[in-house]
Amino acid sequence: MPKNKKGKGIVWEDREVLFDLPFEYLKLRSGEKIFDRIEPIEDTKGNAGVKGRMVVTNLRVIWHSLSSPRINLSIGYNCVISTSSKTISSGLRGSTQAFYCLAAYRNNKYEFVFTNLSPNCIRHYTTVTAVYKAYAGSRLYRDLRLRGAIIQNKQLHVLPLEQICLKETGLWNLSSESGNLGTMIISNVRIVWYADINEAFNVSLPYITIESISIRDSKFGNALVVHVRPTSGGYVLGFRADPQERLSSLLSELQMLHQAYTEKPIFGVETNWNQDDPMPTSDDIEELEEIGEPRGEMGPTLYLASQLALHKEESDAQPVYSPYLGLAIEPLREGITLKNLFEVQTTS
User: Residue 193: CB partners within 8 Å, gap ≥ 6?
Assistant: First the structure.
């Protein structure tokens, strides 16, 4: 398990491919939302013959076994190389069309094959493909960009969820010996600076890439210093203002916006569904709690213990007729069926 996953502001969910994660790593992080839940889905290559659930978020694809949720995987979109559909042999469906995903992480390549066990249903393919396309088209929300086509006629190309908060002129970028005079545009998702004499000389710094912002002494006097996270290049960018007193208020504004973004990040992944397409039911973080425990498929020992406890409370309960067995049986607890119990008996 990679270290420092819970570090403040560090987003790893879209940048890693991980297997058999503890439940805490399957919970949605702040800003992560669910686009779709699909079941039953088979991880045909890694867990053939096992029914599971696919959870599609704006950062990754999660798959977990329905009977044993500790068997799971998390595929970050930033690791995805390609997606397609292909004909495969499924342990539960035989020859069928499946969703194929090729991903790379830490110098390793991974092939994933997911089969929808519902006949004639390709929702798992269409949903993931649409969300991945939206992710790939919104990288300016998450990736540092140098010399990008983001400024035209001194105007910033504003992103769909972006709001301009502040514009500061007369700021020197200290990347050269003499510095370059330019303008800084500050929004709710990033910091942008461009040179006044050449707007193609620019930098776009999403807050997600920034580790810290401070004022430090330099050979040019006090400078506003932005430290970029090592995962985004580890750059150190300096800016100078005249008079230098302007830096103090600018620092306060930037630190406040950076903190606000860290607490509630905006990842920019948005998809417009057609009427016939699936819609997300909820993006509440607690909605994924059921991944941590089996979904009511209790083993015989647990079921017997629960029934004994119930029997103490309802000792006067009368037997009921079960069409499933053709016999009179003790009443079952709400949410439990004989079919569930027999399935557990045969798989345990």
Answer: 171, 173, 182, 183, 184, 185, 202, 203, 239
> How far apart, in whole angstroms, are the C-alpha atoms of residue 174 and residue 223?
9
pTM: 0.77
Question: Percent helix, strand, coil in the chain (nearest 5)?
Answer: 20, 35, 40
The DSSP bridge partners found for residue 168 are 184
pLDDT tier at 302, thresholds 50, 70, 90: very low
Of the candidates 218, 221, 214, the residue with the CA atom closest to the CA atom of residue 248? 214
C-alpha 337/C-alpha 6 separation (Å) is: 40
pLDDT in tens, 155-169: 999 999 999 999 999
For the chain, list the strands marked E by DSSP: 17-19, 34-43, 51-57, 60-65, 72-76, 80-90, 94-105, 108-116, 145-146, 151-152, 155-156, 164-173, 180-187, 190-195, 202-206, 210-218, 221-228, 236-241, 320-322, 327-329
Coil/strand/helix, residue 216: strand
- Token pair 């992480």: residue: 105
Q: Cβ-count burial of 197 within 10 angstroms (0-12 exposed, 13-18 middle, 19+ buried)?
A: exposed
d(CA 256, CA 262): 10
Closest CA to 72 of 49, 43, 102, 114: 43
Tokens describing residue 225: 């210093």
- Closest by Cα among 165, 247, 172, 179 to 207: 165
At position 232, the amino acid (one-letter code) is S
Q: What is the pLDDT of residue 240?
A: 93
Q: How many CA atoms lie within 13 A of 346 on its CB side?
A: 6
CA distance 56 to 33: 9
Task: Order across the sheet with 164-173: list the strands.
Answer: 145-146, 202-206, 190-195, 180-187, 164-173, 236-241, 221-228, 210-218
Nearest Cα neighbor of 132 from 63, 58, 43 is: 58
